[in-house]
């Protein structure tokens, strides 16, 4: 395997890990801020809609042959995570108040797009 393939694979792995961690942090902070327990069942109920959205976003990035580690890929992942997550929450009666959608959109954008922009700046200056 060539060096460029190793780098691409490493970038993809990093992007997956960072995105999963970003969604997990969002869910944990959200549950704690609403004084909800961090039981496995509660966490699973809250995180699954957003993880499904994350998978949809990653599928779109792969199908569109976008770079998952670049900000444009992050925008696709963010939009899918947010929209699919909220649709699933709506149909599972978990609540999608406008204020929650706004907070989720901002937090997920900061994390799912933000880490990609930081990585780009770090790479540019190294």
Automatic annotation (TrEMBL):
In the record, which residues are listed under signal peptide? none
> Which parts pass through the membrane?
12-30, 42-64, 71-91, 97-118
Q: Which UniProt keywords apply?
A: Membrane, Transmembrane, Transmembrane helix
InterPro entries the UniProt entry points to: DUF3054
Write the protein's name: DUF3054 domain-containing protein
Species this protein is from = Acidipropionibacterium jensenii
The organism's lineage is:
Bacteria, Bacillati, Actinomycetota, Actinomycetes, Propionibacteriales
């Amino acid at each position: 395997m060539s060096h460029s393939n190793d780098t691409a694979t490493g970038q993809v792995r990093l992007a997956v890990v960072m995105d999963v961690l970003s969604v997990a942090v969002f869910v944990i902070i959200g549950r704690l801020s609403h004084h909800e327990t961090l039981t496995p069942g509660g966490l699973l109920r809250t995180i699954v809609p957003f993880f499904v959205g994350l998978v949809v976003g990653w599928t779109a990035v792969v199908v569109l042959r976008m770079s998952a580690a670049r900000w444009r890929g992050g925008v696709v992942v963010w939009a899918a995570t947010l929209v699919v997550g909220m649709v699933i929450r709506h149909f599972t009666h978990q609540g999608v108040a406008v204020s929650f959608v706004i907070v989720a959109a901002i937090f997920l954008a900061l994390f799912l797009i933000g880490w990609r922009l930081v990585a780009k700046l770090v790479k540019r200056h190294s």
